[in-house]
Amino acid sequence: MNPLEPGTSEAINAVDLPLSAPDPGGLAQNFTAEELASLRRAVHDSARACGLAGDALDDFVVAVHELATNAVRHGGGRGRIDLRRDGDTLLCDIIDHGPGFPGGVPTPAGLPSPQTPGGRGLWLAQHLTDTLLITDSPGGVTVSVTACLPAPAPSGLPAPILADEWGQAQVEISPGVLVQATTNPTRAPHPVTATEPDTAKNAPEATGPREA
User: Looking at residue 98, what is its pLDDT?
Assistant: First the structure.
């Protein structure tokens, strides 16, 4: 046996290798009509864990809820959601197993008229997310929406502000990077202490006779 090769008892088991940690904000599950309310809460919590907040979070949750409702109504009574983060983008796929669109994939260009039944879910989802993509296939329809995540806030202590002898303020925005600002480019004068003249020392000496 080659001494450089590990023995049978020393062989590395690939199953024991550490796996990459799953996305803490990810969400992947099947759903039915009875689970739409709980799904909406799960989408809210997962999107917030991925970094979405404020009005963008509320809009995204409404959009996904509308798409999930469409999947239940028109896609065979059930669907599947796959929500995940990819860099600075939040992606969500809503998948159903219905017959698809017999007349072709609709284009949600405008809000349907009040007399038109349905069609508002896609319009809302388009306007409440950054992108919307509809994929029609023999096995069902997949609607994908995305939302841009905000940039993470800088961590750590507030940037220190330093001042040099020229009266210039320097703000450290990152380690080793200083931004300098000044309101008075001239050097501040050194303090001067005023002194009174010594009259006794500088007065001329009297040489004439003193008057009585």
Answer: 86
